[in-house]
Amino acid sequence: MQENTKIKTGGAWFDLNLREVWAYRELLYFLTWRDVKVRYKQTAIGVLWAILQPVLTTAIFTIIFSRFARFESLQVPYPLFALSGLLVWLFVNNSVTLASNSLVANTNLVTKIYFPRLIMPSAATFSGLIDLVLGLIILVGLMIYYGVNLTSRIFAAPLFVALAIVLTVSFGTLFAALNVRFRDVKFVLPFFLQVWMFLSPVFYPSESLPEKWRIVFALNPLTGILQGFRAALFGGDFDWSAIGAALILTLVLTLGAFFVFKRMEDDFADLI
Amino acid sequence: MTKVVKVENLSKVYQLGGTRHNSLRDALVGFLRQPSLRSEKNKLFALQDVNFEVSEGETLGIIGNNGAGKSTLLKILSRITKPTSGTAELRGRVGSLLEVGTGFHNELSGRENIFLNGAILGMSRAEIERSFDEIVAFAEVEKFLDTPVKHYSSGMYMRLAFSVAAHLEPEILIVDEVLAVGDVAFQRKCLNKMRDVSQSGRTILFVSHDMSAITRICNRAIALSDGKIVGAGTATDVVREYLSSSWGMTAERVFETDKNPPASEFVRLEKVRVIDENGETCGSHDIHRKIGIEATYEVLQSGAILLPNYQVYNQSRLHLFTIQDVASEWKRREKDQGRYISTAWIPGNLMAEGSFFVNVAIVTYLPKMNVHFNALEVVSFDVADSLTGDTARGDFSSKMEGVMRPMVDWETSIREN
Fold it and tell me: What domain range is A156 assigned to?
């Protein structure tokens, strides 16, 4: 709610108007809360799904990789390694999917009410956070069970989670905007996410990659984020070049995604 | 008086043929540009050079036929879509109500929806908490506050939705035709609330097809036709002028599913046509010939008795008659899901010459009366009396009075004494 409004064509070339997003923070809160609430309504075990999904996948990976392939360089038992990666990955995967669909699924809001459109994919992304937090609680429990020594590095873990959130918001925003005009996104996205998962060190350590390919893999911001996140949790060494690359790439992607979103935003109500 | 709304040279152009691009390259280049720079072909001016001002505390009515640009204007003023050119300035907090119940979620309870919907309409949490009890009382849903709204009756749902909206307290309120559904008592309640709001000194922009509502609530009005302002002045004058003109008539109206067609949970209107005896769409009819009014609608849920109900008005908006499907076949029979076409035939030699407007409603009388929708002035048609000497006018050739012109049987005999 602004006091005075001036309506005209276009608008500034690149003005995200984050002040306005801030003014609408309560709407962001309510939409996030709605998404969480609705997601687990009418399910028999409710929010338990948030835990089951990563735990079951970890179990499957553990069975496969302890039988058929072994990673030598792990500092912690494989289930811990896999779960830590999966929690971050599932958050990225689920939230990008939800966010990409957020504008199209809320056509009635977009065509009937004004609000900063950025709120819609952001709320979808944040609604995935609750699953991540629940998963992290299980992870910490499992770390205690396996007797992992906690170091002061654990305080860096939230920073990597934050970086993953920013990365997710940027992809979610980009796909949400593209989806309004090109419903092709619906078909492209699952494929893109699948390839992205295999190219990210989710269930294998980046150290197991051949040396000469590491630089290529570092172009994937998730490589640095997952490496740093695990190093923080399990007390390993930070791979500063990968983390630095992740930081820069996430920043560039975010700016790019917001730019595209901003360019397309004015036409959402007419196109959707 | 201070001008709180100032609209200058406002235009909105839509590209016909939708958003298709010949190649992905065109699309990529296209979306980085301003909308106004895209292809010049197939333009539709939804609004063209619209200028007006509204003073503080004034209630401005906006009238016009369907497709005249009213909704586009409200959407621009609510900042939902941007104008192609021109500017609009609004001074003060703006609240817009283009639809009642926007953002209601069926799975959430009444209480939860009050907070969600309030936030969507732009109320702060503190404001919602402050008016919470009032909202609940106005909606009369105290007992069902913690029930998901999917279990609400449609009446309860509408009452709650309107109640939240009615407690919005902006300085400028933008209201679209939100009063066209629901029972009569509810409509009256909404209208009274609107009048209270206008009397409390707030500025209102109000779109309606209901001319009596416009004249009762608004001081001033503007009339739109084909995206242009064709009349402006006091509400009474503009309404009078509007009623005697034929701005933007049409013999066929298609309601696209994604464009908010007249609908309820049971039935959705798809198309209305005025047809001749061969079934062709026809806007001008010879007075001899019968005139068909045909509605195509989709029944979304089986199990209700759904009766088409057409109301016919003349140019001075005199309600001539209402016709509804009383043919024995469907009068008391439930309709299953599917697409239906109902045609009413107005006999030849009944209507007077002139222009006529038709409202199309679908109603249920049994077991309980329910108006599923009443789409106002969806189609219009002309009737011409051809001076051939074989109609009710006979050989009379000047202006013939009377709102109907039936051809009746005459018997005259010579009395022989």
Answer: 47-271
